Amino acid sequence: MAKIKAEPFAFPVKHDELALIVIDMQRDFAEPGGFGASLGNDVSRITRIVPDVKRLIQGFRNAGLPVIHTMECHRPDLSDLPPAKRDRGNPSLRIGDEGPMGRILISGEPGTAILPELAPVKGEVVIEKPGKGAFYATDLGRVLQEKGISQLVFAGVTTEVCVQTTMREANDRGYECLLAEEATESYFPEFKAAAIAMIRAQGAIVGWTAHVDDILESIAHA
Questions:
Q1: Has residue 112 got a pLDDT over 80?
Q2: Is 162 a catalytic residue?
Q3: 43 contacts 32 by C-beta, under 8 angstroms
Q4: What positions does the domain Isochorismatase-like occupy (predicted)?
């Protein structure tokens, strides 16, 4: 079996059962004036991973492997937004409010869209998720089952919240999970470091982590 150089040990990859999940690379989280910036975050930390995320996406496309995108967003009527979620964050600008790029984190609004450089192409699945984890209240599980996927490579933001949450959900469902280190980021470097340490602790208790170049080399020779 082929292996990808990874931590805490090599990832035993099954190329015909492998997919890439790109988590929430949305304008509202990565661009000045978006929701992330309104909370006082340095969005340049997010935009700097775009080249590596793009390389990873292109590598999977070139190898004929599935690429799945997620977007955190809610229905326009906010019926899937619990008050406990809406009431947190910046009191002056909340989910559903009008922001510089339309209503914040609402399906169909400009700010909710994936960054143009990473936009899905025809045939790629886009999962709109109301929660942090991509399995909650979505069709992701069904999509993966239909595609025969058992292994997932993760990229996107933020490492400690939506990425890690989805990895934990996937791990509990029996998927083998690999995080691409340079293709994920947090507004807080210490949070990213802590999340990576937790993911691969105790013999890959949640999953593995690897460098983008090592992942790309493996899938290019599949």
A1: yes
A2: yes
A3: yes
A4: 19-207
